[in-house]
Structures are given as structure tokens and as C-alpha cells.
Amino acid sequence: MAHGVPTMEQLESLKSALVNKPPYCSGTLRLPTEEYVLYFGKDKIGHRLDFTDVDDNILDKLAEACDVATFGVNQQDVLDESYRKAGKLDSKFFSPKFNFDGSGLRDIIRNDLLEGTKAEQNIRAELYKLNVYGPGSFFKSHKDTPRSETMFGSLVLIYPTVHEGGALTLRDCDKEWSFDSAQAVKDTNDPEIGYVIFYSDVEHEVTEVISGYRVTITYNLYFEPSTAAMKHTSLSIHGNRLSQVFQSLLSDPNFLPKGGHLGFGLHRQYALKKDSRSLNYIYDNLKGSDATLLNVFRALGLSPKFYLLYDDDDEEGSVVVCPQLADLEDDHVEGTIAYHLREWYGGKVIKRATESDYESDFRDDPVLGRHKKAVDMKVYWVTELTKVTEVKNGYLAYGNESSIEYTYGYGCLVVSVGPYGDRKKSIRRKKKRST
Question: Would residue 118 be called left, alpha or beta, if left means φ above 0 and alpha means ψ between -120 and 50 degrees?
Fold first, then answer.
């Protein structure tokens, strides 16, 4: 092992301490009797549906009042009943008596889904739409479209109707879970409403309804800025484990003795503001294990930075991390995209440490030899970049002929660790003296 290079075992211990909580929570709730009532109607004709004593005629009227449900693709609503077959009502055509603020669901979200300081943020639930899934209805696997950068998830309420099928299947990070709402509401002695809460970027599908009507209302969930000063939050169980492992590494004189940079690919998806180059708002919107990382590093006195990493496979040494969103649509790029991002968007050219770097010294890297003067920092990756944070940018490239090219940015956190004995010290690239 080269002097000062972290071992694979050290980085693996840090990676294994990163535990992802399930990206959802589910169950049933017993509500006050009046909160099982739903009002709906169009064209000045209103109806009242009480789910504690369902009138099948009124339930049929609800299904008939629905429009054919569409789904979002590339910020457009698409109608395709081979992909989604269901009915829907927009929020202006129905009014539930359900009271989110008094339901206890806000506490469930904070305790069972969110981590660290996220659990203290104000949460707003915005009524979105009603869906009716009758016999033969389904919705194939998809992800929800975030309505803003502060939207972090969805709340789906399933009314207690007699139905079969229509289970909600969720998938994330090669794992799968299922919530069978038909069975869940059937197993209760008194009427209870089913609920599922999940992050916006979790893949999910509604399996085919065999019989009956599956009636749901969906709320979009948003983080809201707090008007009061935030109190200090202790780390979660997962955060404590990560903190202990990281502290152990920082106490090891053989772990990055001269300091260095650690990179973490993010696991959750975030909406980016097209009208804002700055990415500072992302820190307040991190979710799950991404938020845990941020909380742990800050608790240890470190300052992790959120970047978009751009990697051009056609250019050696052209890996750049940018602290802002690169709006390349109107840019004329001459030369490499790496140079352009560095020159105009504050990008830093990095050396992505690979397994071979744990066996050879950075200065002897044969590929980097031609580029090392342009490299701003070397990053050891603890967790890999994921496509869930992918951002696609098109730009006009000029060479012998102009052409439209594309580059992809991936969200990541990079934390700088100072030398042994002064871990909180910032790392700066040393400039060579001219000879």
C-alpha cells in the first residue's frame, strides 16, 4: 500500500456503516367517525360518501365521476391505459374530512421515515388527487414527479372498502416491499384507513385490482422552513454507528495521515432549480442516508460539500465536480467540457481514485501524468455514484465541426479531512514553485 493511501478495508468499514432505512412506512389508522366522510361532485351535483358504512350506489357514482388517469413523462401528462388504468379526480372536485394535522401521521413520518435534523423540520401535506382503481385497474412501475425542490415524498391514504388486489409494491436499491391495503383494512375490527408514506424517488406500482374498488387520496409532502430556531438533534441509531466508525478512522494515524478527500454518491433523488445556479438549497432537502451523512460530518466539525460530478468518458482526466448547476444549453464549448466547467462554473478537476490507487502512489499514475498539473483534488470514493441523481446537459461543442454533445452530472457529497492531529483543518492543494 502506498504511504497515506486509505486501504480498501478502511473504506469498506465506512461504507458498511451506512445503513439505509426502508424508504417508506405503512400501516392503518383509526380516525374519528366524521373523518371517514368524503364529499365529491362535478357540475354542481354533490355526493356524500361515508366509508364506515359504504353505499355501493354512491361508490359507483364516485367511479363514474372520475376522469381517466394520466401519468407524467418528461413533465407532460400522458394517457396510456396499457401502462396505467385507473380513474382520478383533481382536488377541486372532492373534499375529504380527513385532518392530516390531527391524525398523528406527521409524527409517524418524523419517527419512521426521516433522519436527524430532517425529523425536526416543518412538514406540510398538500392534497393532490383522488384515484379509484376498479376491477382490472393497475399502474405499472414508475416514480413520482417532484412538484418542487422542497417536495420529499407522498402520502397515500386507502379508504376501507372491500376489494381484492391493488397491493402497492415499492422498489429501491435492489430491494422490494409490498403493502396489501385490501388485507390491511380487512383485518381490522372497526373501520380503519390504510396509509403508505414514501420518498418521491422510490419506484412503485399498483398491482391489478381483482374485485371491488380501491379508493385512495394522495397528498404531496413538503419540507417547510421553520420560524423558530432549530434545537440540536441527537444522531439516529444509524447515524451513531456511522459516527463511531468514522471517528475510529480519524483517530488512526495511518488513515489519510496528510489529509484527503472522501466522496459519497447519493442514494436519493432531488429536484434541481433550473433558475438557480447555486446548489446550497440541497443541504436542507437531503433525505434518508444522504441526510445522515451530512449530519454525521457536521457533528464531527467537518464541512461536506454537495457537488454535481461530470465525467466525460471520451476525455482522459476530464472528471469535474461543480458546486453549481451548469446551464450549458446556450453555451458554446470550445475545447474540453472539463475546461469549460472549470473556467465558467467553478468546477474542480478531480482524480477519481480506483482500486489500483490503493496499490500505487498518486504521483506515479501513468494516465494522470499528462493531466496532474490540472488536477485540483484526488477523491477516494466510499459509495459509488448512482443514476437516481443523474442530470443531463446538452451543449454546442465546437471543433472541426460543431455538434450537439451531452454530459451527465451526478449528485455527490465530498468531505475534506485534515491531516492526523488536525482533522478539521481544511485541505488546500499545494502549488508548486516555478523553477
Answer: alpha
**179 lies in the same domain as 288:** no
Write out pLDDT tens, residues 7-49. Answer: 788 888 888 887 667 889 999 999 999 999 999 998 788 999 9
Domain for residue 424, yes or no?
no
DSSP codes of every residue in 350-404: EEEE-GGGGTS-GGG-TTGGGTGGG--EEEEEEE---GGGEEEEEEEEESSS-EE
- 3-state SS track over 69-98: CCEEECCEEECCCCCEECEEEEHHHEEECC
Q: Is 266 helix (H, G, I), strand (E, B) or coil?
A: coil
What residues contact residue 247 under an 8 Å CB cut-off, 6+ apart? 300
Q: Residue 278: which domain range?
A: 231-417
CATH of the domain at 183: 2.60.120
Alpha carbon distance 317, 156 (integer Å): 46
The set of cell numbers assigned to 336 is: 474540453
What is the tens place of the pLDDT at every residue in 383-406?
888 776 666 554 334 333 344 444
